[in-house]
Structures are given as structure tokens and as C-alpha cells.
Design goal:
The protein has about 110 residues and is an all-alpha fold. The protein has one domain. The protein has four helices and no strands. This is DUF6401 family natural product biosynthesis protein. InterPro entries: DUF6401. Pfam families: DUF6401.
Length: about 110
């Protein structure tokens, strides 16, 4: 993961959120799926990350999102022009969860 400055990380996550159209993710079923992905992301970030690094939540989340985007692109995934949230794919839900966590300021579970 490359080193991100907090401001750059937040700008990246805000732009990703806008591209995904997260303002529309209000349906309970979709929000539940995003929350499940968020819990998985928190678990991933909590394992193998020193506790002191967790303070840089936006930086970790942006790095994680970049990794998901890079891996998905290698497999031919492209962000949908318009997300059909009830039928969103794993990658879209995972990225939505990362953005949602960043907005809530919760990159990892509390110890």
C-alpha cells in the first residue's frame, strides 16, 4: 500500500463515493449488505495493522480501496455508470462499504 496523506486519502474516498452514487444507498437491504462488507473490511484492517496505524483511518481505507480497485481492474471489472444497488456486485458493495466507513470515521473495530 502506498503512503497516503490524510487529505489526499479523504479526497480519493469522497470522489469514489460520488462516482458510486452512495447518496442513493438508503434502502435497508442495500445498507445491510454494505454494513456486512464494512464489518469484513474492519476485520481485514484490524489484523496485521499496528494499533498506532489505525489512527490514520482514511489513509488505510483509501489504500484498501485502491487495492480492491486495482485487483478488480486486473479481472476486467469497471465501475458501473449507474449502480443498480439491489443487484450490486461484490466489488461495488465492498467499495461502498469502504466509503461508508470513511464517512463514519470507523476504519477498524475498537479494542
Amino acid at each position: 500500500m502506498s503512503v497516503w496523506r490524510d487529505f489526499s486519502a479523504r479526497r480519493f474516498l469522497d470522489r469514489l463515493s460520488d462516482e458510486l452514487g452512495l447518496a442513493a444507498v438508503l434502502a435497508p437491504g442495500v445498507l445491510a449488505a454494505v454494513d456486512q462488507h464494512g464489518a469484513a473490511v474492519r476485520d481485514v484492517l484490524a489484523h496485521g495493522v499496528p494499533a498506532s496505524a489505525l489512527a490514520a483511518g482514511a489513509v488505510l481505507l483509501a489504500g484498501y480501496a485502491k487495492g480492491v480497485l486495482d485487483e478488480a481492474a486486473e479481472h476486467g471489472w469497471r465501475p458501473p455508470a449507474l449502480v443498480d444497488w439491489p443487484n450490486a456486485d461484490w466489488t461495488t458493495l465492498r467499495l461502498a462499504a469502504v466509503c461508508h466507513l470513511a464517512r463514519r470515521g470507523q476504519p477498524a473495530p475498537e479494542a
